[in-house]
Write a structure and sequence with these properties.
single chain; alpha+beta; 8-stranded antiparallel β-sheet
Length: 322
């Protein structure tokens, strides 16, 4: 027991208007001393009780605050989510407030063949964003490819994040469209330390299917430990728009198609997790792109007649529980 846990300043109260019976000096001194002793005991006892009461009140308040935090596992949790950000792709040009182009032809870590360029391979019309992968043939035997890679300027931490899109018409092998996210600390943490959330990936050598995946230092495809759904059947993926989304909290990431209860991959935060296995408690930004070839997209070659290939995006939306 810590005897100093409730230690308080000593309070001494002196009554000046005390009527005492006539007594000897010695008895008077003893009487006053007894009164001081009683007052001291009462003061110390009362102080400890007050401290205990304050501590109890603080504990009750903390418990009440904890009880007010929404349970992310509750069946109605996501019904409370509110729209906080979106791009509906209205007008006739891409919003420079929402998106920026990432350009280059250095293979992007996957031996991809396209050159990502700004502006030329993107158009907005009729409320739809269109991303084009295009083949260029100089007639002298040199074939090159251009495409677009869009990064959102805003980043987000937790929520229901959804993209409605239609995959390019299936004409053959060789393209690799993706709707995905990267940790905003990629500049310092690098990949895969920043984390990656693949909301939708598609490879055209595997028509009528999509994939959902997560990557981190502990779990990524370069070491064969990525968290993935594997191929998920979706018969009309190339013909119709579908909603691809995640339900993302500090406890789990769930991937769904069309409806939030149609979950295709559920990854729970590992027990005793570290940043190596769970880098998903930080802000992430969106990416939209079509890759050509590459270690996965080009696994079965590139058919020359699949171009141009166009992915259409109806909207990108972020909902969060306030």
């Amino acid at each position: 027991m810590n005897l100093n846990a409730n230690k308080r300043p000593l309070r001494i109260i002196i009554y000046y208007d005390i009527k005492l019976p006539i007594m000897s000096k010695k008895n008077c001194t003893n009487m006053i001393g007894l009164q001081f002793f009683i007052l001291i005991i009462m003061s110390c006892s009362t102080g400890g009780s007050e401290d205990t009461m304050v501590q109890d009140q603080q504990q009750v308040q903390q418990q009440e605050e904890m009880d007010e935090v929404d349970d992310v596992h509750a069946p109605d949790y996501w019904s409370k989510a509110e729209l906080v950000w979106s791009d509906e792709f209205e007008g006739d040009e891409l919003s420079s407030e929402n998106w920026k182009f990432e350009t280059g032809d250095h293979g992007w870590g996957n031996n991809e063949l396209q050159n990502y360029v700004a502006d030329d391979n993107v158009e907005v019309s009729d409320g739809i964003l269109k991303v084009h992968a295009i083949k260029h043939d100089d007639g002298l035997g040199t074939v090159t490819y251009t495409s677009a890679r869009l990064n959102s300027k805003d980043d987000f931490k937790f929520g229901r994040l959804e993209i409605r899109a239609k995959i390019p018409e299936h004409k053959g092998n060789g393209i690799w469209p993706a709707l995905w996210m990267l940790g905003s600390n990629i500049g310092t943490a690098g990949w895969p330390g920043c984390g990656e959330i693949d909301i939708m990936e598609y490879v055209s050598f595997e028509p009528n299917h999509t994939h959902f995946s997560l990557h981190s230092l502990a779990n990524n495809h370069t070491i064969g430990t990525q968290i993935t759904s594997g191929p998920v059947p979706l018969e009309t993926i190339e013909e119709e728009f579908h909603n691809y989304g995640i339900l993302w909290t500090n406890e789990y990431i769930k991937f769904y198609i069309n409806e939030i209860d149609n979950v295709k991959l559920n990854f729970a935060k590992p027990t005793g997790s570290s940043f190596e296995s769970w880098p998903f408690s930080q802000p992430f930004y969106f990416l939209i792109n079509i890759a050509v070839g590459g270690t996965w997209g080009g696994l079965h070659g590139i058919d020359p007649d699949i171009f141009p290939a166009t992915m259409e995006v109806d909207y990108v939306r972020v909902y969060q529980v306030k």
